[in-house]
Amino acid sequence: MKRKHTMRVRAPELPQNQAWLNVKSPLSLQRLRGQVIILDFWTYCCINCLHVLPDLKCLERKYKDNLTVIGIHSAKFDNEKQVENIRQAILRYDIEHPVLVDSGFKVWQQYAVRAWPTLMIIDPEGYVVSHVSGEGHRDTIDQLVAQLIQKHQKKGTFAAQALDVTSEKQRQPLVNPLAFPGKVLATTSNLFIADSGHHRIVVSTLEGELQYVIGTGKPGLRDGSFSEAQFFSPQGMSFDTEEQLLYVADTDNHAIRRIDFQRQVVEVIAGTGDKSRNIQPYHGAGVATPLNSPWDIQQVGNSLFIAMAGSHQIWELQLETLAIATYAGRGAEACIDGALAESAFAQPSGITTDSKDLYIADSEVSSIRRISLENSQVTILCGSGELFGFGDVDGVGAEVRLQHCLGVESFQEQLWIADTYNHKIKRVDPHTGICQTVLGDAAGRDDKESTQFSEPSGLSGIGSYIFVADTNNHAIRRINVSTLEITTMYFPKLCAPDLCFPVEKDFHINKN
Q1: Of the candidates 25, 141, 260, 499, which lies 20 to 30 Å from 352 by C-alpha distance?
Q2: What is the span of the domain harbouring residue 120?
Q3: Where residue 151 sits, what CATH number does that domain have?
Q4: Which PROSITE patterns match (predicted)?
């Protein structure tokens, strides 16, 4: 926490002519005089920014009459500059405070911000009294807010105010059967869907016949039966066919869960529910080890490899002993090749294998990385390898430009990529690094019969098909890899939690 004790700086006024979300009309600092204000400079791709959100929610609830939080969304990626995409992020992450769209970095520059996330604390008289960058400062901010409230109540410069709020979830309720599905996993007979926005796992046949809904649909960390268990924004999955076990990266619970289909129970096998801040080499018992936003997983033999997005590392969980350890990555957010311990990743969010190598969707450097399981070396397969080296360019190796790719799948001797912020599905030759666009041309929303996607985040292949988690379209799409025909899957017996609409009895997969 960096405080300025020698002088206070008048907080620059917020613009009224830019887009605002979660409010009926733009807010001004002048009108909010008498409140403690926190400006949260964030961008929705950033895992550190996402980690700050629970802290802000806690403070908002604790000081509901005394504190106003305003998100200032200053986008890193081009895709994040679009107001509609920011609105979808607000819905996905259940953000309830007002958000100002600062895609031109005007407010960022006025407040001399240099990094995501940055929090500016403004006192009831309209002065910036402190600021902090990074995550993990909730206790310090809590103490400062309490001191400011007490001081200005005594001074007579404090005034409780009620905001005229109309949340985006009021404007656009999540009533779809699926909500922001993050990952999908196809096996010979089943389709497993991480229904991330509904905090549950959905299991169907490959044709969409519903088999199981696992989880209450309410966020939480609870083991137990399929109807009792709770998840919190689950993402990647891996299935052990022989043992009938599904492993789940329970991302916002910072845990790995195991779903036993024979006993029909869910249990934690790694993680404590607390977010770890450790990036040093580690080895210990899985259930005693805090994790940091595990985003995807891949089983290889008796090992479960984990794309640990929050610590920018790859971890390994031994399935026989349930011991867990860091496997690759020093914890710095970067793209560094070499030996496992010396390498670095940048928010790895997808992982797959061809049994010889691991392939990583390294989202913040918009690149595909390879880890040799034989010689334990990390290399870059395609993409710039730079934090700001993104775009939409097909080509070979370093020529390739992706934009915040979240999904990768090894299928039919090729790598299939969910190029998330380009709204495209691409294919990479793992031998040559040649990357080609397969499908997608622009963001498509609510037009589920087109070849457009909206922030696809996960994909999985079986037989002649690739299944895609079309995240912002709240849909699962099926691609015939021979004809490239796309169908949107329907699940006629699936409803949003506590909400159901009647459907026709002969509802089926619809083809475009």
Answers
A1: 260
A2: 2-171
A3: 3.40.30.10
A4: THIOREDOXIN_2
